[in-house]
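Schema walk-through. Below, the input block comes first and the output block second. Nothing else is stored per chain. Lengths vary across the set, and this one has 171 residues.
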Amino acid sequence: CTFINNSGGSGGGMYYGFYSSPFFMSTSANLLNCKFILNSGGFGEGLYSDWFLNITNSVFYNNSASDGGGIYNHFNSLSLFGCVFSTNSATRHGGGVYSWYSPNIDLANCTLHNNSAEQGGAIYSYSNEKYKIKLSGCILWKNLNGFMQSGETGGIDSLHWEDTKSSLDSW
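--- output ---
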């Protein structure tokens, strides 16, 4: 699947949630080898999701939104494996990935490079202590955060996250 140069209020590239067409009326989906490129608008302009998603070997490139330039995930689990998020932007939160009270956010072997946002250049998560972002073997490189202080990375803005063998670099 390829989504290029689309725009909308939510999910300019793809909207997967409560108001989806009957084609998407399942509460879980698997996406493989998809491309989300140059999509723009309000929330999650690469992809907006209210339901459980597994995404494998997909690219989110140069998407822009107010929140969640690459992905905006809302209240449900998200699993990303071997995905690339590059040059996505958000004027507020989560240049690459934005998560709102999502129970499980798992990223394995993903690269998040050159994404930007006012908060959470690569990843922004708003939740409580029972919900965590889990990273394994990921590379976060040259992501920018508008509130950066000297020596800080622009990678992750979340109170609760775990890391296993990932590389975090602010440049």
